[in-house]
Amino acid sequence: MVYVGIDLGGTNIAVGLVDEGGRILHQGSAPTGIPRPYQDIVADMARVSRDVVAQAGYTMEDVKAVGVGVPGIADPETGVIPFCTNLHWHNVPFRDEFHKHIDKPLFIDNDATVAALAEYVAGVSAGTHSSVFLTLGTGLGGGIIINGKPYSGYHHIGSEIGHTIIALDGEPCTCGNDGCLERYASATALIREARKAYAEHPDSLMGRLCGGDPANISGKVAIDAAKAGDPTALDVFNRYVHGLAAGIISIINFIDPQVIVLGGGVSLAGDFLLNAVREAVRPMVFFKTMPYAGIQLAKLGPDAGIIGAAMLGK
Amino acid sequence: MVYVGIDLGGTNIAVGLVDEGGRILHQGSAPTGIPRPYQDIVADMARVSRDVVAQAGYTMEDVKAVGVGVPGIADPETGVIPFCTNLHWHNVPFRDEFHKHIDKPLFIDNDATVAALAEYVAGVSAGTHSSVFLTLGTGLGGGIIINGKPYSGYHHIGSEIGHTIIALDGEPCTCGNDGCLERYASATALIREARKAYAEHPDSLMGRLCGGDPANISGKVAIDAAKAGDPTALDVFNRYVHGLAAGIISIINFIDPQVIVLGGGVSLAGDFLLNAVREAVRPMVFFKTMPYAGIQLAKLGPDAGIIGAAMLGK
Hints:
2 copies of one chain form a homodimer. Chain A is an alpha/beta fold and about 325 residues long. The first copy, chain A, has 2 domains: about 1-120 and about 305-310, ATPase, nucleotide binding domain (Nucleotidyltransferase, domain 5, 2-Layer Sandwich); about 125-300, 2-Layer Sandwich (Nucleotidyltransferase, domain 5), CATH 3.30.420.40. Chain A is built from 10 helices and 13 strands. Chain A has helices at about 40-55, 95-100, 110-120, 180-185, 185-200, 205-210, 220-225, 230-255, 270-280, 305-310, and strands at about 1-10, 10-20, 25-30, 65-70, 75, 80-85, 90, 105-110, 130-135, 140-145, 150, 260-265, 295. In chain A, strands 3-2-1-4-8 form a 5-stranded mixed β-sheet. In chain A, strands 11-10-9-12-13 form a 5-stranded mixed β-sheet, sandwiched between helices. A 3-stranded antiparallel β-sheet of chain A has the order 5-6-7. In chain A, β12 (about 260-265), α9 and β13 form a beta-alpha-beta unit. In chain A, α5 (about 185-200) runs antiparallel to α8 and α7 (about 220-225) packs across α8. The first copy, chain A, is globular, with a radius of gyration of 20 Å. The model of chain A has no long low-confidence stretch (mean pLDDT about 95).
């Protein structure tokens, strides 16, 4: 049997046909096209799903289930999507709507949770007892897998690790609180601090890398400058790692997963980030001589959304 | 069948005989008497257990299992206690030692975890899907129950919620990090801030309540003065609640339990604390219109240690 996995984003609907082992057999996509009625978006999701299945040489008979990762919260039991801020969705009866087009078992979950599941099935946390996935992107998404199952809590509002508070009365967050992890460890936070530091240190290498226009300072610019040893960028990078390490220590001391996986844009910094994070975390561990969570880079990249969504139905 | 529950503390060994429903049938105790060899402490634990069983009119034949809550971390599988700082224990082969005295199935876990289990079996979180228990005492202990089972993580070092970081570069903690929840939401933190505030505001009601000696300012003094409307004490109390609420929001946004239970010394402030915490948490919830964890006061008080330990074997 094969599975359809749909990664529903604010910009694109990415659809893939995925086999039992989490390998993508064929892919397709369509623009999400917000704002438009959810009924139209769901119709396009179904249409691209049918196309992808056919193009891969399969029929809908071969498809065991359809899974969808959404940039918001999802109620896996009712199939309702209570909140999807980027899409302006509120209490959308997603499963019912989708079933008007394709009558297959349909599973939904949060996009970071789905990425965590992908890494568990076919990535760096394969076969582990428990893992926590962090997407270091525009925001900071979190996914929790325990005993092979996504864990989003009793009311399905959990795994919002970007909105755990690491800095009392710290940076104001879009959620209304202050000091959320997302304000310190997302790509957005890295860019914000890099631009601030460049304004204070216009001699920084970041200036050359961004062509003198601070609007061009991306996470990559900041990290490339830090890798090259630029002191201003290194300072920004080290403070970024300091915040991320505080979040990771809280995860370890709270639910002690077997593995913590770093994904999203900032994780493309690779070993430069990984080694810095591991070094920052090590001296902060509570029980110094006990083993604790391995910290790893995500393996599947942007495909994790499709793979994990597909594997919801496995 | 009945169960023996042992609450192993830094001062006392408290032992109880407990029935299936989590009711204590009979109790006994002995001083822990640290520092002395762990073998002697375990021998006393076994001796008091036998006494309590006999005094209650039972025999060891009636006892299904023995459970122990320890003020440290425990490996429930091997029965080894890797760390118990208060007792100066390090890698103590606890189960093997206990079995030299009493040959019954023996279960061990962290004391806050055990209290969480007690509230799940016979207290305020009875029958819930998931609960997080916080002991607001000298330290801040945490216990997690998911689907009726204690959850301490993959390496058994989890549920140390007192050592999640809520204030980056904040108050130095005994664990070596800065800004741990324990530094803001334990009784010790409340007392520290109350004494500081009294030094700055000697006209505070706390002065009368402590007989003019700041060393007499306890958590109760601070809370009694806050209840009476003393502005200095109220300010201390409100900041305490602010820190605790940040920790609770992080718990909700991370693992979204059905219930969060407040126990330990500070929880004796009762509804005055509970209402303040609920009011502080409500506007901080991420998804404003979604249901989230109920916040409740612990019901079992100091007996939770014995009851929960006994119920480990159920």
